[in-house]
Amino acid sequence: MDDKLALRISQAGMRFIAQMTIYNSGDFERLRQYIEESYHPDMLAQESVEDRLAIFREQYDTIGKVRVRQVVATGKHQVVVVLETEREEGFLVNEMQVEEDYPHRITVFGDVDE
Description:
The structure is a single chain. The chain is 46% helix and 27% strand. It has a four-stranded antiparallel β-sheet. The chain has five helices and four strands, in the order αααααββββ. The protein is of the alpha+beta class. The model has no long low-confidence stretch (mean pLDDT 94).
């Protein structure tokens, strides 16, 4: 199965695509709104919207845009994705999990080695 298709048929994959598309656009006000609406309240209690946004901004300034290199694992509510970066050699490996029930808010997002 094609990696893009694998992401599109997963609730977590769709959230991942949406988040990274907004990130790549550099529209951090829109990314702030996405985080506020899409992250589970428990995640935002652990790390605020502003803190998460600051991490994304710093990452964008350092490595630039990202592109899916390979989908390592995908399930209905979880994905693990290898990302290629615009400005640095090497790869990022991100995991995203979403809640099973609609609206499938994000419950886990970050580097696999975190």
